[in-house]
Design brief:
By secondary structure, the protein is of the alpha/beta class. Helix content is about 25%, strand content about 25%. It is globular and about 45 Å long. Strands 1, 2, 3, 4, 5, 6, 7, 8, 9 and 10 form a 10-stranded mixed beta sheet that branches.
């Protein structure tokens, strides 16, 4: 069972869960876990939920001897969003970051997020920016940065309006959420198969004070085998 109280290390920083839901992407998963464990901020757990993969995922997971890595094993494929919710239910961190197995986070991401929060454990969300890797073209599209906001504590609705106006580039892999705040909202809605990620973190910006990092701290991978890549233009 997940801890009911925040876990704090000797320096006063919160435990942060990096959750990686995965299914049949063993090769991509390896790099994702490596970058998660390479964080400059040490008080983390990396939680992988293997959704009954039939490839070499278990072999890849066995390559890591780091005790910060914890694995959930689903006996049958429970579906994409239920697997994300399984990570949320099992997370022990006061804060949680969801990283798809094909996305990548920078080594300083968690440290930057915790630095923005400081001692304010009530901050519901920290939003950083996201690059986009266009796999078909072999290119990385840099994140759009805010022309109006700097890194630090910001007014939540202001950050939300910039996102909705497409002034900043944000994907869930560059968002750190308060675990209990996300749980209280019911996690990821199964009725929103294509927008459950945004519907999970964006409403947390309705609070008056949130964290914002005006630089890219993660890269979202858009490729033909991704859930977004399978959608038609009209659906997107």
């Amino acid at each position: 069972m997940p801890s009911s109280t925040p876990v704090i290390d000797s320096s006063g920083g919160p435990l942060v869960t990096i959750a990686i839901p995965t299914f049949n992407r063993a090769t991509l998963l390896r790099g994702c876990i490596q970058l998660a464990l390479a964080q400059s901020y040490e008080n983390i757990e990396v939680l992988v939920s293997n959704n009954a993969s039939s490839d070499n995922t278990e072999k890849v997971l066995g390559e890591f001897g780091d005790d910060r890595l914890r694995v959930l094993r689903q006996e049958t494929n429970i579906g994409l969003l239920p697997n994300w919710n399984a990570c949320l239910a099992a997370a022990e961190g006061e804060y949680i970051i969801f990283v798809s197995d094909d996305d990548r986070i920078s080594p300083q991401f968690v440290e930057r997020c915790v630095g923005v929060i400081g001692s304010r454990s009530q901050i519901p969300v920290v939003v950083a920016l996201t690059n986009c890797h266009l796999a078909s073209f072999g290119q990385i599209k840099p994140a759009r940065t805010s022309r109006h906001m700097t890194s630090g504590l910001q007014n939540g609705p202001r950050v939300l309006l910039e996102f909705l106006a497409d002034e900043i580039s944000v994907a869930i892999c560059s968002v750190m959420m308060n675990t209990q705040a996300l749980r209280s909202r019911g996690g990821f809605s199964l009725s929103l198969p294509h927008t459950a990620d945004v519907a999970a973190w964006a409403p947390l910006l309705l609070e008056n004070e949130v964290g914002f990092i005006n630089e890219a701290c993660a890269t979202f991978n858009l490729h033909d085998d991704s859930e977004t890549g399978r959608l038609g233009v009209a659906q997107i």
